[in-house]
Write a structure and sequence with these properties.
- The protein is α/β, with parallel strands linked by helices.
- The chain is 53% helix and 15% strand.
- It contains five helices and five strands, in the order βββαβαβααα.
- Strands 3-2-1-4-5 form a five-stranded mixed sheet.
């Protein structure tokens, strides 16, 4: 699972592997940085190239992306959305499932509280992944938290979706085997 904490200046990337069961292990973590003074197109190109390198190198089964939060500062939202679009496009080109999680979902999944601060998220990521040192900067820890969140939430969501699909197929089979009964028609007065 590749977690992406999108940003144009700093984009956190974290790869987590489940191996077997609920136990998780960090495979890689990093932050792609672009200079604030550089041309936006050049920065986006570099970020896209680095996303491709990570996707090629680690070949994740899916991508978990932080959902863009519409804060008060529109320029920040715009650059974050641009970075998010690159991750969406990179996953789509490879046919990888991509899911988005809100910051609140990620915090609640990792710490138990949707109001946790960055220090709490970093501490729990360190504990969950049994790391010797906390991932730094916060963008790196957030990327790992996204991957953890999706592993835990995505597994349950996948099982629920599979169960729902199975039930729909069962009901369809029952309907196909059942004799068609005439539907009574009732006259309705105008």
């Amino acid at each position: 699972m590749l977690g992406v904490d999108p940003g144009l200046t700093r984009c956190g990337l974290g790869v987590v592997d489940s191996g077997r069961g609920r136990s998780l292990a960090m495979v890689a973590v990093g932050v792609v940085r672009t200079p604030a003074g550089a041309d936006t197109g050049t920065r986006l190109l570099y970020l896209q190239e680095q996303l491709d390198v990570w996707l090629d190198r680690f070949a994740p089964d899916a991508v978990a992306l932080e959902r863009v939060y519409a804060a008060d500062h529109v320029p920040t939202v715009m650059t974050t959305a641009q970075a998010s679009a690159l991750a969406l496009l990179a996953a789509a080109r490879r046919g990888l499932p991509l899911v988005t999680h809100t910051p609140t979902e990620v915090k609640a999944s990792v710490t138990g509280s949707g109001r946790a601060d960055k220090a709490q998220v970093t501490a729990m990521v360190t504990r969950i992944l049994d790391l010797d040192t906390p991932p730094r900067p916060a963008d790196a820890a957030d990327a790992l938290a996204l991957a953890i969140c999706h592993h835990w939430r995505g597994g349950a969501d996948s099982r629920l979706a599979l169960a729902a699909a199975s039930e729909r197929a069962r009901l369809r089979s029952v309907r196909e085997r059942s004799p068609r009964l005439p539907v009574p028609v009732r006259a309705v007065a105008p």
